[in-house]
Design goal:
Protein name: GNAT family N-acetyltransferase
Strand order of the largest sheet: 1-2-3-4-5-7-6
CATH topology: Aminopeptidase
Order of helices and strands: EHHEEEHEHEE
Strand content: 25-35%
CATH architecture: 3-Layer(aba) Sandwich
CATH class: Alpha Beta
Pfam families: Acetyltransf_1
InterPro entries: Acyl_CoA_acyltransferase (IPR016181), GNAT_dom (IPR000182), NAT_camello-type (IPR050769)
Number of helices: 4
Mean pLDDT: 90
Largest sheet: 7 strands, mixed
Number of domains: 1
CATH superfamily: Gcn5-related N-acetyltransferase (GNAT)
Distance between the termini: 33 Å
Radius of gyration: 15 Å
Number of strands: 7
GO molecular function: N-acetyltransferase activity
Structural class: alpha+beta
Organism: Marinilactibacillus psychrotolerans
């Protein structure tokens, strides 16, 4: 990639298809999760468009030289909670601090929108993403064996309290 700095923008027409496509060709392929994972991503992106509330939800897209290189979603999970979803950075754009920046943008948006906490659900095998979540201040609050993508995996629910008085909260499934 050229040296132009990346930008962060909100979603536009066509982005949800790219997000599903790139998750399938990178994450699903890398971990051999196949069509089950692609279907979950497709469901998340479709639901986002169907129920999008711009005051309380956001899809952050990173672009460099006019090409999409990353994304993350923040959606309303109800009861004062937001949910972080589908963090992704293209392989050639990794190592630039982009994933951390995307998560920080989502946390800032959640704070401004008045959320008390942010939850996320991930797989324990996703070490790079887990490192970022921990660095930003998320903590694991639940673990379980999950076979959703065709193999035994450990899924985790993480929490970031925006209200400093709240330590933990019950997990919310994706």
């Amino acid at each position: 990639m050229q040296n132009q700095k990346y930008i962060i923008r909100t979603h536009q027409l066509g982005d949800m298809g790219w997000i599903t496509y790139r998750h399938a060709l990178t994450v699903a392929k890398e971990f051999d999760w196949g069509e089950a994972f692609e279907a979950v991503v497709g469901d998340v992106t479709a639901q986002f468009i169907k129920t999008y509330d711009p005051k309380n939800e956001r899809c952050f897209i990173a672009e460099k030289n006019g090409e999409m290189i990353g994304c993350v979603f923040l959606v309303n999970a109800g009861e004062g909670a937001a949910k972080l979803r589908l963090l992704f950075v293209e392989p050639q754009a990794r190592g630039m601090g982009l994933a951390t920046r995307l998560v920080e943008e989502a946390v800032d948006f959640a704070r401004d929108a008045g959320y008390e906490k942010i939850l996320l659900w991930t797989m324990k095998i996703l070490d790079s993403a887990r490192h970022i979540y921990k660095k930003v201040g998320f903590k694991v609050i639940d673990e379980e064996i999950n076979q959703e993508f065709g193999e035994k995996l450990v899924s985790e629910t993480w929490l970031l309290s925006i209200d400093d008085n709240e330590e933990t909260s019950p997990p919310v499934k994706s």
